[in-house]
Amino acid sequence: MSQIRASRRFPLLAAGAAVGALLLSACGGEETGSASGDTKFVQGTGEITKVADGKRTSVPDLKGPSVDGKKLKLSDYKGKVVVLNVWGSWCSPCRAEAPNLAKVARDTKGKDVQFLGINTRDLDKANAKAFERNYDIDYPSFYDPSGKLILKFPRNTLSPQAIPSTLILDKDGKVAVRALKELSEKELRSALDPLLAAK
């Protein structure tokens, strides 16, 4: 009888593990490199994918509260290049890349670019707010503790499948770059600058 119960439970456990893997991805352990080996993803993790103009796809119009309680809507920034970073205060690669994002965000102010975050799996807003203070993050982030916003991205698209992930959207709101890794300042600038230079 116990074997029958165990066999019935296995598909449920497998499904739960798959959902957990989607939300966990690159974060774990103390390593801050993208090749830490603890990822649950076989394809894409650690890569920066660039998409040619004309082959880009739109993203869902994300909307919801920010970490500081204000209303955020992604489509409000159409017409600007948007850097959308998925992060959590508990994530060591997120902490490693945060100064790079903050610096490039400051350096590109007034250049038709908007940085946004999606804070995920922080059940207490206080932790997210402390992260933003500690790393001088002065751009807004969606507060998405359950990962619902991330799951709005259609399957088999350039979605933010890892934590951290960064999408760079062109001025039409389409994915031009996806990074499934922590970004160095140099990598971020290299991905962003051509989009800022495009007319």
Number of alpha- plus pi-helical segments: 4
Q: Per the principal axes of the C-alpha atoms, what is the gross shape? A: globular
Q: List unreliable stretches of 5+ residues.
A: 4-24, 28-44
Q: Round the mean pLDDT to the nearest integer and report it.
A: 83
Signal peptide: 1-26
Protein name: TlpA disulfide reductase family protein
Subcellular location: Cell envelope
Domain Thioredoxin: 53-197
Structure, explained:
- Helices cover 31% and strands 19% of the residues.
- It is globular, with a radius of gyration of 17 Å.
- It has 199 residues and is an alpha/beta fold.
- Residues 1-26 form the signal peptide.
Protein traits:
alpha/beta, globular, single chain, 199 residues, 31% helix
Question: Mind sketching the topology for me?
Answer:
Blueprint: H1 2-24, E1 48-50, E2 63-65, E3 71-73, E4 81-87, H2 92-107, E5 113-120, H3 125-134, E6 141-144, E7 165-169, E8 175-179, H4 185-197
Parallel strand pairs: 4-5, 5-6
Antiparallel strand pairs: 1-8, 2-3, 4-7, 7-8
Outline of the structure:
The chain has four helices and eight strands, in the order αββββαβαβββα. With 199 residues, the chain is α/β, with parallel strands linked by helices.
